[in-house]
Design a protein that fits this description.
alpha/beta, six-stranded mixed sheet, 14 helices, 10 strands, globular
Length: about 300
Amino acid sequence: MKTAFLFPGQGSQKVGMVQDLFENYDSVKALIKEADETLGFSISKMMFEGPDTELMKTEFTQPAILTASVAVWQVLKEHGLTPDIAAGHSLGEYSALVAAGAISFADAVHTVHLRGRFMQEAVPLGEGGMAAIIGSTPETIVKVCGEVSTEDLPVQAVNFNCPGQVVIAGATAAVEKACEALKEAGARRAIMLKVSAPFHSTLMEPAALRLKEVLDKIDIHDTAIPVVANVNAKEETKADEIRKNLVDQAAHPVHWEESIRNMVAGGVDMTVEAGPGTVLTGFMKKIARSVPCHHAEDVASINEVVAALKGE
């Protein structure tokens, strides 16, 4: 059996995530204490108590989800479960790289906190947006966005998530215009997302430049297992390529569907979503229906995953 661990990105956060793991595992207590000390503020209080309005701010969302995901991975590892390959959606790529031994947890949680801040500061609140396009083809979405986009008001496809779902991002006015054009072109739905910035669009290029300065200062190692990169859907193991891909990822599309298909073609026959929520499990069921997928985010679900993967 070849198992992939999948790590979620923004949108999977919720107040109370991994609190039961914190209460039941000393290792998770130590990990979350390390996050608080590294960040210089209590991300644990935000994770466990909220308020949701604070947890929704991307500079807090990103370290919170990474901390929760690494906590889940750590508990799975304590149960003797380790992946053969890993991938993470957007922010989740950092969690995957921690699991693969490329980046320390402290460096990762510090970096994604700044990544969130840089992304928010790149585009003033309200001037950038994202929308999920349901029931259209990637080709149509790319074509329509190209027709709508201008130099001053860009819009593009940024998350190729699964069959029938692509997310677009850019200047708010351009995203809204593209939504209308895509519905006219046959899309079933176009849903504006409640996000604070147009992630993975060209408008994130200033954030990518600032992020590069941070990434250049931290230690990145070759991985112990392959990690599939968002920017090219390829397995990566070398530190230099990983560093470059993380910079590029901030302002380039996430090729999630292609990443999953490449992993399945490479022999993956079981996946585990390690972290809060079930977003990636849902994508997985649409991309590769024949591959069993499990989600792990709390004591009960982790016990189920352990039993399934150990054949109990």
